[in-house]
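Contributing new records

If you add data, match the layout below exactly. Sequence lines come first and carry their own label; structure lines follow with theirs. Keep one chain per record. Anything else will be rejected by the validation script.
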Amino acid sequence: MSAASPGKRLRALIDAPEILVGAGIYDGFSARAAQATGFRAAIVSGAGVSESSLGRPDVGLLGYEENLRVTRALAACVDIPLFADIDTGYGNAVNVYYTVRGFEQAGVGGVMIEDQTWPKRCGHMDGKSVISAEEHVEKIHAAIDARRDPDFVIRARTDALGPYGLDEAIRRLNLYADAGADLLVVDAVRSLDEIRTIVARLSKPVVVNMGLGVRSRATTPLITPRRLEEAGVAVVEYSRLFSAAALRGMFLAAAAVHENAGREESIERPDLAVSFEEMSALMDLPGIRALERRYAAGEPITTA
């Protein structure tokens, strides 16, 4: 019997009684770390890929090809199912159709598509604008038609809450659900009460994007997965968990190097960096070594 598809595995996690806690990944380190630390699913963060690959913010500079290239590589290096973040679909409904085809072939279990105008902005930035709900409904129709696996998860996100308010955000997501979206996201929700209202008024499972440690200006307050589960949320994602933590770690490690610069002897700081052995294990060097032994053909031939 063939293994369950990534989409089918994602659906099982979404439909389970307990809330699904996911992480945002953006490179090989974060992908393997998410799997190694027990996350059962992850999303390839468009913001994380833009910031780590381009050194630029999430303002629509990341294109289809670069996003697809990174996503394909990450899907291949972990076993947990992944969502892809396809922003607005890189154009109109026809573009969405081929974008979904490309990302499904890349090995993810689902995609998230948002209703912002292009170039988009990170969901927690000011100045967002959205296309008409009717236009985004057609993008959802295209995404549904494009998927080959009926279990491939289509996740619709609205950014209408900031510019137009809660009622319009909910109206839009119900239209997207009627169009066939499987999972719904209102980005940048402002309170637990708002989350409860959203869950109660939507017809499909709900995702909440959550920060960790610091609440940034004008974003969602910090709420534990337990309280979100009690509110009826199906999925909570820490989309910037690894990217923000990695950047903070870089600053701390760099500061330690500068602090040691004038010393006679360096001070060991194992709390600031993983060891070579830990990194090698995480990157599956033992698996590579096993393959080398399996396919070894004896001593190399040398000539005089």
